[in-house]
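Duplicate of #3305? Posting structure anyway:
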C-alpha cells in the first residue's frame, strides 16, 4: 500500500558550488576556458547510488507552469473515483470492508448518549478518536456513511495539497507517492479513519519544518491531537532538532493532549475504557508473530486455531501468550533504541524529523501484535513526507514499502480467506508482505543511525 516515484531534470537555474562558474558564464579569472577546473571531490552523479542521485530525487514531471499540479489533481480524481466505486460495490475478495463504518455509526450513538462505548471489546482507541467518530455529525444532510467517506476524502485532499505545497518550486515525488500509493490499498482507506490520523501527522511534520515559533507550536499541537486519536502520531516529534524547536513542539503537544483528554473526560464517561481492551489483545493473523504461527501450523508443529476476538481474527493456542509478551518486549526495545539514537545523534538535516518519524513508526509496526492493513496508510503518508525533501535517506525504504502495500491489499480483502485458512497462497502473501516490512524497518533504522550518528562521528 505504498508508492514511490521518479524525478525531474535539473533546471538551468541550478546553483553551482562555491568557487565554480555556471556553464557559459564569463569570468575575470585568468583560467583558460578550455582547462576545466574542479574544486569538488564529489564523484560524478552516475557513479553514486541511484538512491542518492539527482536523477532519482527529482520528479519525472516537467515543473514549468501548472502542468504537474493539473496532472496530480487529475490522477487524484481518477484514482479516488475508482476507490469510491470499489467501496460502493464492496464485493472484492472477502467483501464487507465498509462494515467498519457501520461500527463507527454504532459508536456515534454511544457518544450521543454522553459515553465512550462501555464494555465494548472492539473499542481500543484513545479518547481523541471519538472526535473523528463524531465528525460526520457536521454534515447532517448526509447519511453517516456518506458523511464519513466525504470527510475522509477531504482529509486525503488536504494531505495531497500539503505535500504538493511542501516544494512550491519543484513538485517532488512525495505528493505522487501519496496520490498513487493510497489506491494500492483499494477502497480500504475510505472506510477507516486512518487517513484523518495520517493527515494530522503529515501536517505536524510539515509545520515543524518552518522556522517560526508559531509553526513549531502548531506542529506540536497537531501531533498531540494525533496522539490522542491513535497514539502513533506522537512519534512525529522524535526527530525534532534539539533546543528551541524541541521545547516548543513537545510542550505544545503535551499541553494539547492533556487539555483534550481533560475535556473529553469532562463531557463523556468511560474515556479511558480503551485501556482494558488493548491489554487483552492477542496475536492478529496478519502480524509477524501471526505469520510465524501460520507457518508452524502449516508444518504441523503448532495445533492452534483462528478465532474472532477483540474485533479481529487472532490465533489462539499454545505459545500465543509467549509471543504476545515477546512483541511487547520488542516494542520496549524499539523505544529504547530510539532513545539511544536521540541521545547520540548530532547531525540534523531538514529531512531528519521526517526520516525519524518513518523509522520509528516502522519499528513499532513490525513489533506490534497487530498489523492491520490500514497501518500501511500511516507508512505511505510518512514516506511521502520524507520524499518531499532532497535530504532524506529513506528513498530505498519507501521503495520497499510499495510492494508491501500492494501485498497488503492482496492479503485483505482480496485473498483473506487464504490468509485465514493458511493456504500456500495466503502464506506466501503474508511472508512476503511481512518480510518487506521487517526489511524496511531494519533498513530505516540503519540509515537513520548512519546519517545522524555515524556521519557526525566521521566529520
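Output from current build:
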Amino acid at each position: 500500500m505504498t508508492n514511490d516515484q521518479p524525478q525531474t531534470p535539473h533546471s538551468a537555474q541550478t546553483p553551482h558550488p562555491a568557487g565554480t562558474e555556471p556553464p557559459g558564464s564569463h569570468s575575470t579569472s585568468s583560467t583558460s576556458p578550455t582547462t576545466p577546473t574542479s574544486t569538488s571531490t564529489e564523484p560524478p552523479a552516475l557513479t553514486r547510488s541511484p538512491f542518492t542521485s539527482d536523477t532519482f530525487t527529482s520528479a519525472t514531471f516537467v515543473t514549468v507552469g501548472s502542468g504537474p499540479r493539473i496532472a496530480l489533481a487529475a490522477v487524484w480524481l481518477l484514482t479516488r473515483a475508482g476507490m469510491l466505486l470499489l467501496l460502493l460495490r464492496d464485493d472484492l475478495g472477502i467483501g464487507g470492508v465498509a462494515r467498519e463504518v457501520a461500527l463507527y455509526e454504532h459508536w456515534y450513538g454511544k457518544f450521543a448518549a454522553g459515553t465512550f462505548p462501555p464494555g465494548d471489546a472492539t473499542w481500543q482507541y484513545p479518547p481523541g478518536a471519538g472526535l473523528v467518530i463524531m465528525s460526520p455529525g457536521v454534515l447532517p444532510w448526509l447519511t453517516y456513511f456518506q458523511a464519513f467517506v466525504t470527510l475522509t476524502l477531504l482529509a486525503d485532499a488536504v494531505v495531497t495539497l500539503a505535500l504538493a505545497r511542501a516544494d512550491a518550486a519543484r513538485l517532488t515525488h512525495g505528493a505522487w507517492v501519496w496520490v498513487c500509493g493510497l489506491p494500492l490499498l483499494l477502497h480500504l482507506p475510505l472506510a477507516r479513519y486512518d487517513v484523518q490520523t495520517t493527515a494530522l501527522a503529515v501536517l505536524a511534520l510539515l509545520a515543524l519544518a518552518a522556522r517560526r515559533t508559531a509553526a513549531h507550536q502548531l506542529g506540536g499541537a497537531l501531533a498531540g491531537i494525533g496522539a490522542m486519536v491513535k497514539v502513533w502520531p506522537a512519534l512525529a516529534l522524535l526527530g525534532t532538532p534539539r533546543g528551541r524547536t524541541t521545547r516548543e513542539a513537545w510542550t505544545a503537544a503535551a499541553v494539547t493532549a492533556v487539555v483534550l483528554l481533560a475535556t473529553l473526560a469532562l463531557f463523556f464517561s468511560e474515556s479511558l475504557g480503551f485501556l482494558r481492551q488493548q491489554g487483552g489483545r492477542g496475536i492478529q493473523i496478519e502480524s509477524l508473530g501471526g505469520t510465524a504461527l501460520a507457518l508452524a501450523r502449516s508444518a504441523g508443529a503448532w495445533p492452534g486455531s483462528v478465532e474472532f476476538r477483540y474485533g479481529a481474527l487472532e490465533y489462539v493456542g499454545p505459545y500465543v501468550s509467549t509471543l504476545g509478551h515477546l512483541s511487547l518486549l520488542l516494542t520496549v526495545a524499539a523505544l529504547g533504541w530510539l532513545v539511544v539514537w536521540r541521545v547520540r545523534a548530532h547531525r540534523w538535516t531538514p529531512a531528519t524529523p521526517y526520516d525519524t518519524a518513518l523509522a520509528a513508526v516502522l519499528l513499532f509496526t513490525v513489533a506490534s501484535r497487530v498489523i492491520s492493513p490500514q497501518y500501511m496508510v500511516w507508512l505511505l503518508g510518512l514516506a511521502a513526507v520524507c520524499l518531499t525533501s532532497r535530504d532524506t535517506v529513506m528513498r530505498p525504504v519507501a521503495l520497499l514499502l510499495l510492494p508491501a502495500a500492494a501485498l497488503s491489499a492482496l492479503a485483505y480483502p482480496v485473498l483473506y480467506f487464504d490468509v485465514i485458512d493458511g493456504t500456500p497462497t495466503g502464506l506466501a502473501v503474508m511472508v512476503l508482505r511481512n518480510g518487506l516490512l521487517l526489511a524496511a524497518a531494519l533498513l530505516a533504522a540503519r540509515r537513520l543511525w548512519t546519517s545522524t550518528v555515524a556521519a557526525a562521528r566521521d566529520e
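Confirmed duplicate; merging threads. Confidence is low (pLDDT under 50) at residues 1-65. Strands lie at 283-284, 305-309, 312-316.
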